[in-house]
């Protein structure tokens, strides 16, 4: 039985979530389930204060929006509240996924292979990096 399962969620991809739901339900029957949404860092040119940076939403605004979206997504999973933990962080998605996997002592990561429609055989770059570097089993959902 797994005790700590990490499920990274790309909040912009509803179809990916649909793929993940049955797998999470099967494998996380008694486990604590950590849902993670990573907000990629604001592009460096914006952080330098160059053109268009004024139009970017502020960090707190982004974080609130991402949290709300993640809440909606997590509601689609049939998991008791007490076994759910939600995380929203900034940074490079693959680094943050690997970092949280260690921090919560994940014994399983469940990740979708790539965006639907991108390719039927390739592994997306985030998924590939997690498979390569994680310290625990990784279930890649296709
Ligand atoms: P693609 O390159 O086709 O977008 P990815 O490897 O980036 O494929 O995405 C596959 C999976 O990686 C997603 O379904 C999700 O589980 C995870 N992932 C990607 N980006 C993020 C993100 N920003 N936050 C959390 N998880 C992510």
TrEMBL record:
It comes from the Bacteria. Pfam families: Usp. Gene3D superfamilies: HUPs (3.40.50.620). Residues 1-142 form the UspA domain. NCBIfam families: PRK15005.1. Belongs to the universal stress protein A family. Homodimer. This is Universal stress protein F. It comes from Citrobacter farmeri.
